[in-house]
Specification:
Elements lengths: L3 E4 L1 H8 L4 E3 L3 E3 L7 E5 L5 E7 L5 E7 L9 H15 L6 E6 L8 E6 L2 E6 L2 H5 L1 H12 L3 E6 L12 E7 L5 E5 L2 E5 L14 H10 L3 E5 L5 H6 L5 E6 L2 H13 L5 E5 L2 H10 L4 E6 L11 H18 E11 L6 H15 L3 E7 L18 E7 L2
Parallel strand pairs: 1-4, 9-10, 14-15, 14-17, 15-16, 17-18
Antiparallel strand pairs: 1-3, 2-6, 4-5, 5-6, 7-8, 8-9, 10-11, 12-13, 18-20, 19-20
Helix pairs in contact: 2-4, 8-9, 9-10
Length: 387
């Protein structure tokens, strides 16, 4: 008999609404092994589906199926294959992509990114970590990678009682992997780079920025120059700003490697530099704002709103009439509506009339699961200053 867990009526309603997470407060009680696949039942004993159980996280259950029966031995390979087939259908113009995006691929808390012939994996809950061997076997069979690296260093693993580690799970993983994004090549440090090496969720926005870019451009919070390098072909000059000196060194190295001579990386406090540009009456024809998440939890939302407003207000003042601003937020706790309100307030206070040209989100290989707002985190607005 499979292990089973009873959930409250509130938890059952959450499932009916389409959300696959059940919180610990809605679990009536369970004596189940960490990471086990369990049958979820209502208070009346009605089977509701199958979930991965966590013994420590506030997310106690992550639903994986609403079928009567599941096969723990074959389900994961089939779903990884389906996730890969979807990515293949996208005809992505890059040699780096996300192959598995957690809940949106019915593989909760599992991330798989592909960098050429190297895979980077994150197993962020007990259930997926327990199925490491099955996941590796499926990936080796389906992708035949040179190597698989586990980047299990996100702090969220602490909530699952899991160690933070970086280790090779299969084959060989070099220190640097060269990948292409559109026409630009990047040397990626898969062991130590942000996320799993690159911000793959911004790939399509990087390419879109090139379509709007012109004249003198500014890429603020540039990291490794994803926006700056794509915009360079359409601009006279591109100034890329980041607070990290190592990141700026990578920007300049990437520019040289791609034979791009009109990109300059500077290590500065970006907030201070935007303010100094305003005082000096500097002007740009294209500006990109892609800051780190200002609101990592609900308690930091008020401060995040102030931070987002300040950088957008400064950017709008620096923008020439007819110029474009691409502004981003990766803070889940800042909703789409909140972000648009922030930008609207900034435009009013900057006395800069702005037209909203386009709304964008994360790349298509990072799909959003309908009914699960946590999977929709990246917001990107393209605006044009009309006077």
């Amino acid at each position: 008999m499979p292990a089973s867990v009873v959930i409250s009526n509130k938890g059952s309603e959450r499932l009916r609404a389409g959300h696959p997470w059940i919180y610990r407060s809605d679990v009536a009680g369970a004596e189940v092994e960490p990471g086990a696949l369990v049958l979820v039942k209502s208070e009346r004993g009605r089977p509701l589906g199958w979930a991965l159980f966590s013994s420590t996280s506030q997310i106690a259950l992550r639903m994986v199926s609403f079928d009567k029966n599941v096969d723990d031995a074959t389900m994961w390979r089939e779903r990884i294959a389906a996730a890969m087939a979807y990515r293949d259908s996208l005809t992505i113009d890059a040699t780096a992509r996300r192959l598995v995006h957690g809940e949106a691929d019915r593989l909760p808390a599992l991330i798989v990114d592909q960098y050429d012939d190297v895979l980077v994996v994150q197993t962020l809950c007990q259930g997926m970590d327990r199925r490491r061997e099955a996941i590796v076997a499926a990936l080796v069979d389906l992708v035949k990678p040179r190597g698989i690296l586990a980047r299990n260093d996100p702090k969220v693993r602490r909530l699952e009682g899991l160690d933070e580690t970086i280790e090779v799970w299969h084959g060989e993983v070099p220190d640097v992997v060269r990948v292409r994004e559109g026409r630009i090549w990047h040397d990626v440090d898969v062991r130590h780079g942000q996320k799993t090496g690159l911000f793959l969720d911004q790939r399509e926005n990087h390419l879109a920025a090139a379509a709007f870019a012109r004249g003198r451009a500014l890429d603020a919070f540039s990291y490794h120059g994803g926006f700056a390098l794509q915009m360079a072909g359409a601009c006279d000059r591109v100034l890329a700003l980041d607070s990290s000196e190592p990141a700026v060194a990578v920007i300049n190295a990437n520019a040289r490697a791609n034979q791009v001579s009109n990109v300059e990386g500077r290590a500065v406090n970006v907030f201070d530099e935007l303010r100094e540009f305003d005082i000096a009456n500097e002007r740009f024809d294209t500006i990109v704002l892609d800051p780190p998440a200002f609101a990592k939890n609900k308690a930091s939302v008020t401060g995040a709103i102030a931070g987002y407003k300040e950088i957008n207000l400064r950017a709008m003042k620096l923008l020439t009439p007819g110029g474009y601003l691409m502004t981003c937020s990766c803070s889940y706790n800042i909703s789409d509506a909140m972000f648009l309100d922030i930008v609207t307030d900034a435009a009013r206070d900057a006395r800069a009339p702005m037209a909203l040209i386009e709304r964008r989100l994360q790349s298509r290989d990072h799909p959003v699961l309908v009914g699960v707002p946590e999977t929709s985190y990246l917001k990107c607005l393209v605006l044009r200053r009309i006077a």
